[in-house]
Write a structure and sequence with these properties.
Layout (H helix, E strand, L loop, with lengths): L1 E3 H4 L9 H10 L3 E7 L8 E10 L7 E6 L4 E6 L9 E5 L4 E2 L3 E2 L3 E3 L2 E3 L2 E2 L16 E2 L9 H4 L5 E6 L10 H12 L31 E8 L8 H9 L7 H13 L4 E4 L8 E4 L5 E3 L5 E3 L5 E5 L2 E5 L3 E2 L12 E7 L2 H4 L2 H4 L5 H8 L6 H16 L2 E2 L3 E4 L9 E5 H8 L5 H10 L3 E5 L2 E5 L10 H12 L25 H9 L4 E2 L5 E2 L1 H7 L6 E2 L10 E2 L4 H13 L4 E14 L2 E14 L15 H12 L8 E5 L5 E11 L2 E9 L1 H6 L6 E7 H5 L14 E11 L4 H12 L3 E10 L8 E11 L7 H15 L5 E2 L2 E2 L2
Parallel strand pairs: 28-32
Antiparallel strand pairs: 1-13, 2-13, 3-4, 3-6, 4-5, 6-11, 6-12, 7-8, 9-10, 14-22, 14-23, 14-24, 15-22, 16-19, 17-18, 19-20, 20-21, 25-27, 26-27, 29-31, 30-31, 32-33, 33-37, 34-35, 35-36, 36-37, 38-40, 39-40, 41-42
Helix pairs in contact: 5-6, 6-10, 11-13, 14-17, 20-21
Amino acid sequence: MRVSLEWLREWVDVGVDGRALAEELTTLGLEVDDVVEAAPELSGVVVARVEECRPHPNADKLSLCVVYDGAARHDVVCGAPNVRAGVTAAYAPVGATLPGGKSIAAATLRGVVSHGMLCSSRELGLAEDVDGILILDESAVPGTSLVRQLALDDVVLDVDLTPNRGDCFSVIGIAREVAAKRGANLRGPAMRAVPAAVADAFPIELRAPDACPRFVGRVVRGLRASSSPWWLRERLRRAGLRPIHPIVDVTNYVMLELGQPLHAYDLAKLRGRIEPRMAARGETLELLDGRLVELDADVLVIADEAGPVGLAGIMGGASTAVSTETTDVLLEAAFFTPAAVAGRARRFGLHTDASVRFERGVDPTGQVRAIERATALLLEIAGGQAGPVVVAEQRDRLPERPFVALSHRRVEGLLGLELDAGTIETLLRRLGIELREREGGWDAKAPPHRFDLQIEEDFVEEVGRLLGYDRIPAVTGAAAAHLGKATEHRVDEDSLADALVARGYTEVVTYGFVDRELDEAVSPGARRVALANPISSDMNVMRSSLWPGLLLVARQNLSRQQPRVRIFEIGREFAETDEGVAETEVIAGLATGGAAPEHWDGGERDVDFYDLKADVEALLKPTGRLAEFRFEPAAHAALAPGRSARIVLGDETVGWLGALHPELQRTLDLRKPVQLFALRAASAAAADVPAYRPYPRFPIVRRDIAVVVPAEVPAAALIATAREAGGELLQRVVIFDVYTGQGIEPGRKSVALGLILQGVSRTLTDADADRAVHSVTRGLERHGATIRSQKIS
């Protein structure tokens, strides 16, 4: 919300120091992001009256003007189409300085000397879209400084409001806060009722009273102005809005001033009656921005007898939009419940000033006041005649603020201060809060514009805000200390993260919301949790896998010319179930680029499946259960055929590992091979309790054997069988060579295993080692293993 000091001064005394006011508002909880000058710096520019205007003798598109600046008359050459005798304008005489440091000097234009220039709002740094010189009100006195005339020494406060303070999306709302803090009077411009001059009353029918319990309308006929006065356009500009047309400008002005959005319909384009109702499924509406939207049954619309003419509380429709030809309008000021508007604007990709206010809640009693204010401004600017104010309402559906019990002791306890009852009452009444005394405290009722005051603590917070948080003493808190549980049955997440960091990975945190198409490509068939009101179109479902987020992070890093990317995330995946939404904690990682940093001692090689498998094994090793995990070849939709494996624990699949599928790699425009893994955190963290075993005192014996097995037999199966058959003497099994080619039958491979044997009570003999090796070779027979082309016997 952007608000200028000059506008605020109409409502409350704010002083002249904008930065001091910004600090004061920030302490009230209305954080001011910035304080900016209302206009660029200029000097010497004054108000002047054009007394004569005649064609330039040597140019068709130039005029020769005589300008009076309150002290003297000057000849000025001007090319603006709107210059004419009698107008009052901004004049920069010789020696004046315009924004950007441009100094004005006498200049000869087509043989005529121009002593200064008549300025446009663009040349003064006040607007971009201009059509000639800046014409001022006729009441402006020649010779008056333009800075003083237009209050260009004003400052604008950019207030960053929290979602609960919808009442402060207006000048009156911020003025209320300042007045309450300072104990000042809230004044504001006079807002008298405008009597009806014509009998026109457009019929209104409430067909969705739960969503729209009050709708106020008024017909205004005979509007004539083509542009808004300068003061109105300038206030809109300082508030961040672009002036459009007097009718639209007035509705925007009242919205900014009072916080009540309004809308104006071209009366000639309305049919029958106006009715707020729920849309029929499949109805369509062309919006003011030209888009055609299809409506759902939960969308509140404003309709006439021909169909929808606007999205209630969001945007009007093109079919009844006002234009420069509009002379008769229907003004609308309604109360829409926050629940009826919330989320609808985002659904249609809109974010309007009206929806921001209605979603947070507007004053349900302010509609007639806003209509009267808008009517008075319109008649002042554009003439015309107003009809009667028509109010359609169902009072029992309007929100009613209940009384809330407020304890004196509770106020003091939460704030840590001793406060007398009179101080508390004074502070709360400054905010318009109604109080009824009772034993030990009060019953407090919030004013209609404060939707955020609902429980006792809310009212206590108001006392603290106005009193000043700096007056609340700092007290060291005392609380019972509870020791956490330490267990050896689980490896904590920090240790798992450290294991990956030690191998060159960087932890990332990605959004839990992802694009549906990418999530479906990674996890087809998953039961996704769709978001009813996504914050953007590419974040419309809860992630069913961590991989989409990691892939997008990797793409971002690769696009920034990072040669190696190693990232991981520990987060939750979501799935729809019959009982609700299921959440699963997962550890997922991604690696792409070189297997090792570039080095003079070796050529660069891209990371591959086995590099990532080694990282996963390093992750699982601290659990003491690495041998229980199996890596089995299996197909996954997101992984490349023949280069993927599932991670199995017991009979359950607990994770996946492999290279990204080529189709996905092309879709994401990833130039380097990408390796991925994902592992259920509960399985990765479950650990065996370490058991003491004395360090062996006897030497080891190593025996190597080479077996030929079918090519499809996984190495992990050979290791598991060898461990099972080797007994207690076999301490470790390693595979140190795999060979296919000459001398090996097609469809088979040679696998060399190293068997490390060691006794626990004595030194092993050759006979002991031979028996262990024989037992292993017999066990490997189940896999069709042979040694030196002979069947094992």
